[in-house]
Amino acid sequence: MTIYSLYILNKAGTLIYQNDYSDNAAKLSHNAYISLGSTFHGLHAIASNLSPTGSSSGIEVIETEAFKLQCYQTRTDPNQQNLEETLHSIYELYTDYVLKNPFYELEMSIRCDLFDYKLNRFRCFIDKRMGQDVAVDTLGEEFKGYVFRITGGNDGEGFPMLQGVAVPHRVRLLLTKNSGCYIPKRDGERKRKSVRGCIVADDIASLQLIIVKKGDAELDGLTNVSFPSRKGPKRANNIRKLFKLSKEDDVRPYVIRREVPSKKEGRKPNSVAPKIQRLVTPVTVARRRALRRAIVDRKVAAATAAADYAKLIAQRREAERKSKNSSKHSKVSTKAAEVAKPAAAAPAKKVAAPAAAPAKTATKAAKK
């Protein structure tokens, strides 16, 4: 609910206070004003008689498109039940003003800067968005000069404000892992959930703020109190940043220690310090130098072994090549010898055969 205008009327229907908080809001027309003033007392009496409890202090009587009428039976009881918090706070301010002002009567108009100041102090965050800087001088003298930035908030039911949703009410959106206000249980899972828009309205129950600019006075419990961290930094560079040390300075004396009470009575508490990470000492330098030397030695040994192995493989291949060449030469020579032997024996047979033939013919002739 957002309040754009505030009208306070007495039972006679006379307007005793009017304040418009938004210039763009629709103004109350003359007919609506007459209807509001003429029906106030009658509707209030009827609603009081119809109330189930006789001591009811506030009843929502009528609601139209132009206005919403809220009636209060007394001017001394601010304990309203089941009503909007903003109307409750306005009624508390009104009763406080009436009770503490002895010269005020119900028929008189309210002309008091303090009343306006107390009303406006509740509305410095209204219609502001997340990430917007707000001057909070109206909250009180102790906040003079302070500038807050709205980082988030929750409505009355606990739904969180989501950046980028430019509405002053609650909406249902299909949220993913990167949208915010939702933690998926599976990769790529999406779910439709209710979130509050990023524009502040009267239904916001809590706001998360950070101080952008500090004012003149100290805020008790906020800016004048420092809570030391239980554990200090562990990384050497972070310790140097904390104590503004150079690279040549030793950070070990500056590590933040904490005392742990002993479990046995009568003993002194133990002092515990975190292990400094990325600490550069002569031991670490020597160890890293040894590691680099070992890496270089391994590379040299691997290169030497690879060269020896390549040399051995080359020798074996050369031996195999020579053995193959020698075997080829031997095979060629044996084949040549085998071919040469039959070639030498064949002409002898051809020459001897013609010489023997005449002898046979001679013997045959002699026998005859």
From TrEMBL:
Biased amino acid composition, Low complexity: 333-368
The encoding gene: rps6
Keywords on record: Endoplasmic reticulum, ER-Golgi transport, Golgi apparatus, Ribonucleoprotein, Ribosomal protein, Transport
Organism of provenance: Heterostelium pallidum (strain ATCC 26659 / Pp 5 / PN500)
Pfam families the UniProt entry points to: Ribosomal_S6e
Main subcellular location of this protein, as a coarse class: endoplasmic reticulum
Protein family: Belongs to the eukaryotic ribosomal protein eS6 family.
Annotated localization: Endoplasmic reticulum; Golgi apparatus
Entry keyword Nucleotidyltransferase: no
CDD domains: TRAPPC4_synbindin (cd14856)
Annotated GO MF terms: structural constituent of ribosome
PANTHER family named in the record: 40S RIBOSOMAL PROTEIN S6
Region (Disordered) location: 317-368
Cellular component terms (Gene Ontology): endoplasmic reticulum; Golgi apparatus; ribonucleoprotein complex; ribosome; TRAPP complex
Protein name per Swiss-Prot or TrEMBL: 40S ribosomal protein S6
InterPro entries for this protein: Longin-like_dom_sf, Ribosomal_eS6, Ribosomal_eS6_arc, Ribosomal_eS6_CS, TRAPPC
Biological processes, Gene Ontology terms: translation; vesicle-mediated transport
